[in-house]
Structures are given as structure tokens and as C-alpha cells.
Amino acid sequence: MAASLLLDDLRAALGPDAVLTDPDLLRGYERDEADLCASGTPVVVTRPRSTEEVAAVVRAAGRYGVPVVPQGARTGLAGAANAVDGAVVLSTTAMDAILEIDPVSRIAVVQPGVVNAALTAAVAEHGLWYPPDPGSWESSTIGGNVATNAGGMCCVKYGVTTEYVLGLEVVLASGEVLRTGRRTAKGVAGYDLTRLFVGSEGTLGVITEVTVALRPAPAASLTLVAVFGSTGAAGEAVARIAAQGLSPSLLELLDRTHLVAIEAYRPMGLRTDAEALLLAAADTGPRAAEDLAELAAVCTAAGAEEVYAATDAAEAAALLQARRLAHPAMEKYAADTYPGGNGGLIIDDLAVPRGALAALLDGVARIAAECAVPIGVVGHAGDGNMHPNIVVDRNDPASLERGRRAFDEIMRLGLELGGTCTGEHGVGLLKREWLAREIGPVGVRVHQAIKSALDPAGLLNPGKVL
Ligand SMILES: Cc1cc2nc3c(=O)[nH]c(=O)nc-3n(C[C@H](O)[C@H](O)[C@H](O)COP(=O)(O)OP(=O)(O)OC[C@H]3O[C@@H](n4cnc5c(N)ncnc54)[C@H](O)[C@@H]3O)c2cc1C
């Protein structure tokens, strides 16, 4: 009864086309890209086109005590966008307008469903650049990027999403519309509510507009590849690069499992005999060649077996493309390792201080051997942000148990090394227990106080983060 009243209210507010109830369609909105995470079936998927329509959805759900799960492109890797049974899914994909690009203030104002690559292309026409570039940039939305505080390959030099979010418009659980932040170069009025919503994973409000800072387009970059005999040695090179004050515009690590997986997924001539590759780039204009030579020298001193520069822009782009294929390639690797649809991936994401990267990588290799599970490691090495990808047989309880044990051991090691349980994918469903361990009981109470102040009925993306 309540469900049919809710649907009537939603249709009246949004029109029938933006209110989807076909069971096949509903199943398509159940989950994000995280494997092995719980999900439910929504009672309805809404596709509002404006802030007013988002507020109408949130108010209608609140009237009937129904949870609301905000979703962008559902490329998330922590289950944060997964629906719960009976929820209203609020998909932002119809809110995809770039509202303003201001080259003087170097800002853009966008609706949340704008895809990262679309914003990047639009601002490039003005000679400007929006740096945060998650591997999913061709499909993930700015709203999702903000709600997860997404990172990417160039973040090692230019910073992650939060550095570029100047202001937000947010629909609160009450249906009221909050504006945070500014569009000026400076501004310190009041608490920094913008940062509170960045990374809040849809649990505190629905982001309906984002004002982002832009930079002038960077100079073309030069890229090198360094081949190492162990992941730990590559980690040591990263620490030395930082210690020497170098600022690469990209510093990514791929281990042998990933090189093999990518080569099988799309043959590109990668060195599949290498234990680890570091990809590094310098975009310092006239100094780039000098900077690249310094990066090469540090890698050699740290034990690289071979260091070579990409011969041209096409080769450099191919290397970056190889790195971007890591996720689908590992999905195929898992499927090939356990055929018949049994291959599963537990995708981890943690960050440690750069000086502890070698210890983390050596530790992951030890944990893989002890738990007898294949673990491939890839990630934004320059940020100390690694993705150990654990391959399991989803239909073998023993394999799942070993995979989960490895996951917990890696989390434990990361925290012991002074790290954090998630560098960029977010807490979602995967890391709730580890967030609580990381922030402790006082931190949990402060999180709960903020959540209940903003969402007293607990209807916004329930079960995520805390
Ligand atoms: C191949 C691949 C590569 C990836 N590479 C990276 C990477 O390099 N760096 C990285 O950080 N992540 C990466 N990811 C993870 C993912 O793409 C990011 O987390 C991305 O920011 C999610 O955006 P989305 O639009 O898909 O959001 P979704 O997955 O739909 O949602 C993510 C979270 O944001 C919330 N949300 C979405 N929109 C809103 C809104 N308007 N208001 C409030 N809450 C909202 C959801 O409720 C959910 O909690 C990758 C994923 C894939 C599949």
C-alpha cells in the first residue's frame, strides 16, 4: 500500500518517464562494480532532472520511511552504490548539464551526472584542465567522484577530487537545499561543509550541483618505464623519488600478475617476465627531459633492472592505457583462473605513507603465500595507494575464506604501517569494520552524531560507511 502511494507521489512529481518500475530494469540498478558485496532490489528507480525533482524524491521517500540510495554511474568498487531491498534508487544520470565554465575565475559549475571525461573535454576547449582522473573517467560521474573523493593517476602531483571542489548544492534528508562553499579563489566563511560532503558516499545528502576549480592545461609529459625484480624494490624506488624532492606527474605500479593479466586481455608487448613495473612521467615543460633523467637515475639506484623512456606520445599513451585496463583485465584473469563463472575478485584499496610502501608490498606477497591465494597488486604508487586484488573461487567456501583472511591481514598490516583502510574507493560495504578500527570509538561517535543530525531517520544510503 505504502509502495503504491510512494509511486503515485513520485509519478506526480517527476512524470512517468523518470520513474522506472520494470523488474528487469530494477535488477540492473542493484549494484556497483564491487564483486562479492551484498545488494538488494529497489522498489523503484527515479531519474530526476533538477534539484527540485531530487528534493521531491527525497521528501516522498521520507513520507513513507523508505531508504534512498543515490547512484551515479555505478562504477564504484566498495558496494557504496548498492541498493537495499525496497529502496528508492535516485540515479543522477539525467542531470548531466555543464551549467557554466568561467575561464577568468577558472571554475566550472556542473550537475552531478556529468561524466568526468565530458567535463575534461569541455574545459579543454577553454585551455583549462580538471585534473582528477579516476581510471573510470570515461564513465564515472562528477557527483560519484565527489561522493567518493576519487583519486586518479595525475593526483600524485595535482591532488585528489577534494582539492578541486569549491562548493556544492546538496539536497538534505529533510528535502531542504543546502549550498556550501564558494566560487571565489579564497573564502573561509563558516565550517568547511563542502569537505564534509566530499567522500560522504551518499549518506549525508544528495549532491545536485558541484562548483569545481580548474587549472591551465599542463605541458605535454614524457614517460618512462622502470622494471624491477620485486614489488618491494619498486616501492623503495617510490620512497627515494619522494625523498629526493622530485614531483612526477604520474607514478604507477603494476605487478607481474597484472602485467600477465593485461597482456592476456589485450596484447601490448608488456614485459610479463618483470616482477614489477613503475610508470613515471614528468610534465615540467622545458625541464621535463631533465626531470625524467633524474627519475630514471633514482630508479636505477634503487635496483631497477632496466629503465627506458617511451619513444613518443603514442607509446606513452599506450602505457597509460595498459594501466587503465587493470580492472577489466583482472576480472578476466579471475574468470580464467576459475572457469565456469566461478572466478571472483576481492578488490582492496588502502594507502600507506610513501616510506612504508616497500614494507606493504613485501607484506602483501607474504600474505598471498600464507593464505594460498593469488593476489595481484596495482596502484597509484606515488600516493602510497595500492589495490591488492585477491582472486577467489566464489563457489568454494574454503577459497572465499582464504581470500577474506588475506583481505583482513592486508588491512591490519596497512593500519600497522600508519596507513588508512581506503585511499580512494571509499568505505561502502567493504570497509565498515576497518573504518571503525581506524578511527576508534570517539571517531565512530562523531561520525554517528553528524549522520543523525543530518539524517535522523537514517534513510540516506543506509548500511554504508558506518
Ligand atoms: C575500471 C575502474 C577504474 C577505477 N579507477 C578508479 C580510480 O583510479 N580512482 C578512484 O578513486 N576510483 C576508481 N574507480 C572507482 C569508481 O569509478 C569511483 O569510485 C567513482 O568516483 C564512482 O563514480 P560513479 O559515478 O560511478 O558513482 P557510483 O558508483 O554510482 O556511486 C559511488 C558513491 O557515490 C554516491 N553518489 C553518487 N552520486 C551521488 C550524488 N549525486 N550525491 C550523493 N551521493 C552520490 C553513491 O551513493 C555511492 O555511495 C574505478 C572503477 C572502475 C570500474
Notes on the protein architecture:
With 466 residues, this protein is of the alpha+beta class. The chain contains 15 helices and 19 strands. The protein has helices at residues 2-14, 23-28, 51-63, 116-124, 142-148, 155-158, 193-197, 231-243, 256-265, 288-301, 313-324, 326-337, 357-371, 397-416, 432-454; strands spanning 19-20, 44-46, 68-71, 88-91, 98-102, 107-110, 128-129, 165-171, 177-181, 206-213, 215-216, 222-228, 250-255, 276-282, 306-309, 343-347, 350-351, 375-380, 385-393. Strands 12, 13, 14, 15, 16, 17, 18 and 19 form an 8-stranded antiparallel beta sheet that branches. It has a 5-stranded antiparallel beta sheet with strand order 5-6-10-8-9. β5 and β6 form a beta hairpin. α8 (231-243) runs antiparallel to α13 (357-371). The longest helix has 23 residues, at 432-454. It is globular and about 65 Å long. The protein starts with a helix and ends in a 12-residue tail after the last helix. The mean pLDDT is 97. The structure holds flavin-adenine dinucleotide (FAD).
How are the SSEs placed, and which strands pair?
Blueprint: H1 2-14, E1 19-20, H2 23-28, E2 44-46, H3 51-63, E3 68-71, E4 88-91, E5 98-102, E6 107-110, H4 116-124, E7 128-129, H5 142-148, H6 155-158, E8 165-171, E9 177-181, H7 193-197, E10 206-213, E11 215-216, E12 222-228, H8 231-243, E13 250-255, H9 256-265, E14 276-282, H10 288-301, E15 306-309, H11 313-324, H12 326-337, E16 343-347, E17 350-351, H13 357-371, E18 375-380, E19 385-393, H14 397-416, H15 432-454
Parallel strand pairs: 2-4, 3-4
Antiparallel strand pairs: 1-2, 5-6, 6-10, 7-11, 8-9, 8-10, 12-14, 12-15, 13-14, 13-18, 16-19, 17-19, 18-19
Helix pairs in contact: 1-3, 8-10, 8-13, 9-12, 13-14
